[in-house]
Backbone:
């Protein structure tokens, strides 16, 4: 009975998606206005659970069943993406490790793929890149090798090489749905980094449409695309579209913590403080990501609930305290939080500097610039923010940081210019910082 | 050129080292203080069901971060840890909140839970941060009237439903109540969230809802009883009865005597549990013309060995427990026992087949004028006729043996003597092999005997403990001896059942074969426990690129693909040896008397299997869909039905054919000859093999391919990124399974072929056995 109803839903979804695809291609649309309607996920979580238990049982019987180990690692990694539960990351690491000790990477591409993904997810980008490079040697004709290489390079700030890898990935990419989704997602990411919102939106819409047209649309991929579309819209101040995208993502995947947190942010931007607090409270109860917790603290502060705000800020620090055990996952959020709230700025600067030594991406440069400014290292902040803006990324937060740095350096016209750009692009980019930017602009005049 | 290749090889090796290192760093980074990560809120509930009330033991374990969030509600300020008073008040408050979050209903009516006790504690966690542990005892009562078929209970934990973490539900019936048809299990995993499994690869438990039926009194016979997580019924998870004997409060002579008696009984029952070489003992004594004395001697050896084994292991555990882990010793002992048995079996097999061949050769020559003539004579003690074949070689071994053994039942006045065919070499019950057998049966100490000894030492009742162990070993020996005796007498009975005179000729060979197989099986099992994975080893060997000549094949662009295909072949080989496959094939093979036919059956099965796999695989590859679990389990049910049908068929055929053979005697040159004639229904010689065998094996193989292997293949197919490679993999897998099954069916066919040629009485028994086994297995499989 359930199989029957499920297949009916599947068929319905396929037809819907096909109709939507047809409509989109007919109009040649690239705008966010023509997104496919949101639908509850057709994938069945209990089946995923069953598969997991099946594989775990298989491994218990034959601990060297590397194929099951690889498969299991992939499933665990997917769970990390879906739930943010880091326990699954350590399980994935264990599965990948067991697989590779059974069989070396030459005969065990799947194991190497899993290990590389685990390293990427654990923010071990340098080893992830090296292993991805090894993958491209072992499987030079596979798009996924270059996808992983590009992803790692992007996080390390090696943008030219990353673009080359993604180009190669696109050349090799077949007609398989998921590969095409992956290609579109990377194109969107590059577009956003280069400040080309249109490219980003078009690619994300394509990715979403392809994902929706798969026999069973993967719920995390669909929700991720919608969430990213929301982020892009939010980045240019289109709060209504952003909110709609987030809510659509939550229709497919009700517990999607990324969309929940973003929904809180966009509700705050629209002035709905209680709604924003509610969304953030749910998001932090699913995964207490320090960025979410800090934002919730900010909102409490705005609402005059100082005691609760202080408690949230204290929680962020506690997470930092556990950061040594947690790995370096939250270093950057931590540094930005400290700089934003002027606490432990020296420590934050040290951390940002240390991280930037190995990972020279633009947001790392931004974190370094912002913490350097807060610790009075204006010259260093100037160099760093130039680095951060080198790709031409249109991000209100980067512009805001650049403006404040220029202001501290005494360049008032530069400061006005950057702050104006930030507020014009995304007037409510942050509940606390946006008003600081506004005050700085007014006091400067 | 050469230089570059070496450097790339060394680079590759360095890379491997690097990868392994990276993995360890990864692990080090991810080793959390809280075993499940410091964001988790973990739940445990034990539901104790009585006829009119339900008790719930409810524990929540919050890791550092949620504990920090929660503790803000406890103390006034978040910097200092809460005072015990605050914590106690919080514990009671939170217990009633948690009770509200538990939805408990009996027959659809909500049962409110009352807080019996609730307390909170703050065990230290990582980074000097406390964790939070809440322990509640809740109770709810209800009036459950009527309901002859029992009541339905539903439990749902809705507390912190968003939060990640471990969720464990356990069900326990109170005394006088039975729980059945339960979605939850009876055994705990984490000891109320105090110790999480850390060595295994397993996603956290996610049990939020339990539904179960309960009734006061016994579980209805047709219902599924409450199970443990490894699928065993809750009742067998009983206490260790032997270990209880030692723990009596006062040791009066009555109690001691009773204890010893119970130990004997427990020992004899223990011998019936698998792994004590019952088959081996029986097979040996039957094949070797053992006597009651041999059986008794065997029993003695077992007792001594087992007692010594327990003492020895107890000593090791006491003295060297910091160096040796007793769990490690068990498989080693098991391996030794298996090796002993296999050795005995093999040497017997070799000796007996050699002798049988010599015997056969002599029969073919047809000349028998050395010192005895074949003749039929009648024994004075019974009226059955025996066929005596006395061999012509100069070996008088068995005569000597008998004088040595002075086996009862044989008068050695010189008139009547060995009744065994010389080919059987059956007279050789050597003391050496008896001792070896006894050791193999007793060397594996029963864990509960060991517990008794250790408990006795800790209770300062060493003497009594030793006595208990001896009594237990005696019981063990009694059973083994009893089985041996039963076999000895059964053999005599068969032998005296005159028309099967030749049965004794094939029996020793068969029994030697059984012994060797049993020994090998024990060895294999113990190797598995030791962590030596034979298949894994093979796989590693096979994955070395050098083994496959075609490893530089450029078509797939990488050596990995070739390795994968090699594995496909191995997987196929292994796949053919899965139980349900073997059982089905053996039922068909039992119909055939020729080895070549048996092999053909296997090959046909493999062909059918491959065909269905390739078809399903192509669909999977083309459409990228997964086969739903539901469909797969229905297919497996179909396989079970098919196996039952095959078994029934084999039994029926055995019964029918049995009527068709007879013994007739006639004489050649004044020498009386006895032949057993077997009348075939069809003429076997002139038909085309495949037509005669039919496509039954192929159809059955196809069915198997559809059912069981769906999962295995899917695993690999999802791993393979190219469709062409996937199909090739499937084909290679298929070839592997054909080869494997060809081998297996030939092996299975061996006893059938052998017995068909030698004598059809045993052949029919074998056939019946195969049929019955297959029916039994089918029923179990379906269930």
Residues:
């Amino acid at each position: 009975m359930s199989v029957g109803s499920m297949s009916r839903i599947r068929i319905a979804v396929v037809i819907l998606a096909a109709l939507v695809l047809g409509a989109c291609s007919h109009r040649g649309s690239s705008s966010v206005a023509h997104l496919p309607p949101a639908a509850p996920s057709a994938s069945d979580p209990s089946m995923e659970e069953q598969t997991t238990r099946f594989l775990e049982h298989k491994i218990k019987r034959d601990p060297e069943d590397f194929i099951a180990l690889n498969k299991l690692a992939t499933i665990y990694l997917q769970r990390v993406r879906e739930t943010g539960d880091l326990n699954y990351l350590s399980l994935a690491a264990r599965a990948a490790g067991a697989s590779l000790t059974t069989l070396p990477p030459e005969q065990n591409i799947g194991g190497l793929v899993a290990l590389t993904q685990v390293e990427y997810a654990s923010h071990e980008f340098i080893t992830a890149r090296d292993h991805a490079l090894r993958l491209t040697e072992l499987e030079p004709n596979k798009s996924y090798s270059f996808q992983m290489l590009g992803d790692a390079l992007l996080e390390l700030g090696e943008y030219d090489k990353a673009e080359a890898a993604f180009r190669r990935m696109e050349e090799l990419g077949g007609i398989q749905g998921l590969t095409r989704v992956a290609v579109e997602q990377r194109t969107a990411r590059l577009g956003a980094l280069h400040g080309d919102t249109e490219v980003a939106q078009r690619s994300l819409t394509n990715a979403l449409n392809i994902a929706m047209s798969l026999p069973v649309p993967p719920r995390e991929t669909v929700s991720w695309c919608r969430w990213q579309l929301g982020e892009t819209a939010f980045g240019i101040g289109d709060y209504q579209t952003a909110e709609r995208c987030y809510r659509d993502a939550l229709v497919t995947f009700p517990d999607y913590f990324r969309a929940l947190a973003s929904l809180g942010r966009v509700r705050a931007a629209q002035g709905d403080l209680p709604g924003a607090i509610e969304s953030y409270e749910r998001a932090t109860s699913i995964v207490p990501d320090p960025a979410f917790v800090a934002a919730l603290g900010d909102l409490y502060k705005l609402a005059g609930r100082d005691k609760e705000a202080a408690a949230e800020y204290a929680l962020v620090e506690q997470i930092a305290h556990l950061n040594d055990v947690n790995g370096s996952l939250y270093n950057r959020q931590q540094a930005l939080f400290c700089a934003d709230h002027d606490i432990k700025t020296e420590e934050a600067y040290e951390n940002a500097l240390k991280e930037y030594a190995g990972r020279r991406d633009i947001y790392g440069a931004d974190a370094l610039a912002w913490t350097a400014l807060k610790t009075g290292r204006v010259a260093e902040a100037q160099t760093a923010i130039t680095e951060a803006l080198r790709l031409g990324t249109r991000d209100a937060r980067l512009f805001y940081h650049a403006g404040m740095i220029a202001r501290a350096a005494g360049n008032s016209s530069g400061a006005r210019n950057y702050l104006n750009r930030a507020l014009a692009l995304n007037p409510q980019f942050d509940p606390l910082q946006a008003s600081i930017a506004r005050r700085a602009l007014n006091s400067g005049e | 050129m050469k230089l570059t290749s070496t450097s790339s090889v060394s680079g590759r090796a360095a890379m491997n080292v690097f990868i392994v290192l990276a993995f360890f760093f990864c692990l080090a980074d991810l080793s959390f203080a809280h075993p499940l990560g410091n964001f988790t809120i973990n739940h445990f509930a034990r539901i104790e069901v009585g006829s009119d009330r339900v008790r719930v033991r409810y524990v929540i374990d919050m890791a550092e971060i949620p504990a920090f969030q929660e503790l803000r509600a406890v103390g006034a300020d978040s910097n200092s840890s809460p005072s015990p008073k605050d914590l106690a008040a919080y514990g009671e408050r939170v217990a009633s909140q948690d009770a509200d979050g538990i939805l408990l209903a009996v027959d659809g009516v909500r049962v409110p839970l009352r807080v019996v006790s609730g307390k909170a504690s703050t065990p230290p966690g990582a980074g000097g941060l406390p964790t939070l542990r809440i322990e509640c005892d809740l109770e709810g009562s209800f009036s459950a009237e009527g309901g002859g078929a029992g009541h339905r209970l539903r439990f749902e934990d809705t507390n912190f439903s968003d939060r990640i973490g471990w969720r464990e539900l356990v069900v326990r019936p109170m005394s006088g109540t039975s729980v059945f048809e339960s979605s939850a299990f009876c055994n705990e995993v984490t000891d109320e969230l105090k110790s999480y499994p850390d060595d295994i690869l397993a996603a956290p438990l996610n049990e939020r809802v339990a539904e179960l039926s309960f009734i006061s009194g016994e579980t209805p016979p047709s219902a599924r009883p409450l199970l443990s997580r490894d699928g065993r019924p809750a009742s067998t998870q009983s206490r260790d009865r032997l270990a209880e004997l030692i723990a009596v409060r006062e040791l009066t002579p009555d109690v001691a005597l009773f204890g010893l008696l119970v130990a004997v009984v427990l020992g004899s029952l223990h011998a019936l549990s698998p792994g004590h070489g019952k088959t081996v003992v029986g097979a040996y004594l039957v094949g070797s013309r053992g006597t009651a004395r041999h059986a008794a001697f065997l029993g003695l050896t077992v007792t001594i060995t087992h007692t010594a084994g327990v003492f020895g292991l107890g000593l090791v555990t006491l003295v060297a427990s910091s160096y040796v882990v007793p769990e490690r010793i068990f498989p080693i002992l098991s391996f030794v026992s298996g090796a002993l048995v296999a050795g005995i079996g093999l040497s017997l097999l070799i000796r007996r087949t050699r002798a049988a061949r010599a015997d056969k050769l002599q029969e073919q020559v047809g000349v028998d004028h050395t010192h005895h003539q074949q003749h039929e004579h009648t024994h004075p003690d019974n009226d059955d006729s025996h066929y005596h074949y006395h061999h012509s070689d100069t070996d008088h071994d068995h005569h000597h043996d008998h004088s040595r053994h002075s086996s009862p039942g044989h008068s050695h006045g010189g008139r009547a003597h060995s009744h065994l065919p010389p080919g059987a070499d059956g007279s050789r019950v050597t003391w050496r092999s008896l001792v070896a057998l006894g050791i193999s049966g007793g060397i594996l100490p029963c864990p509960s005997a060991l517990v008794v000894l250790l408990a006795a030492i800790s209770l300062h009742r060493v003497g009594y403990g030793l006595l208990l162990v001896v009594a237990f070993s005696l019981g063990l020996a009694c059973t083994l001896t009893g089985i041996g005796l039963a076999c000895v007498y059964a053999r005599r009975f068969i032998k005296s059942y005159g028309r099967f005179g030749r049965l004794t000729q094939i029996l020793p060979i068969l029994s030697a074969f059984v012994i060797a197989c049993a020994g090998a099986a024990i060895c294999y099992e113990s190797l598995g426990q030791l962590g030596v994975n034979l298949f894994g080893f093979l796989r590693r060997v096979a994955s070395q690129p050098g083994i496959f000549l075609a490893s530089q094949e450029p078509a797939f662009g990488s050596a990995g693909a070739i390795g994968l295909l090699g594995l496909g072949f191995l997987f196929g080989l292994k796949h053919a040896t899965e139980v349900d496959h073997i059982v089905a094939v053996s039922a068909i093979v039992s119909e055939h008397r020729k080895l070549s036919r048996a092999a053909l059956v296997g090959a046909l099965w493999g062909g059918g299997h491959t065909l269905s796999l390739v078809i399903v695989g192509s669909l999977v590859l083309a459409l990228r869909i997964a086969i739903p679990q539901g469909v797969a389990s229905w297919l497996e049910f179909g396989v079970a039905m098919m196996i039952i049908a095959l078994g029934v068929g084999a039994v029926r055929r055995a019964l029918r054919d049995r009527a068709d053979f007879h013994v007739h005697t006639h004489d050649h040159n004044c020498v009386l000859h006895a032949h057993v004639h077997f009348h075939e229904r069809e003429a076997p010689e002139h038909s085309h093999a495949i037509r005669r065998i039919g496509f039954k094996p192929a159809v059955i193989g196809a069915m198997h391919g559809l059912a069981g292997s769906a999962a295995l293949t899917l695993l690999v197919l999802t791993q393979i990124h190219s469709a062409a490679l996937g199909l090739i993999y499937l084909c290679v897998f298929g070839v592997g399974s054909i080869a494997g099954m060809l081998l297996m069916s030939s092996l299975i066919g061996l006893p059938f072929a052998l017995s068909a040629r030698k004598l059809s009485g045993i052949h029919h028994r074998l056939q019946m056995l195969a049929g019955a086994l297959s029916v039994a297995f089918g029923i179990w499989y379906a269930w």
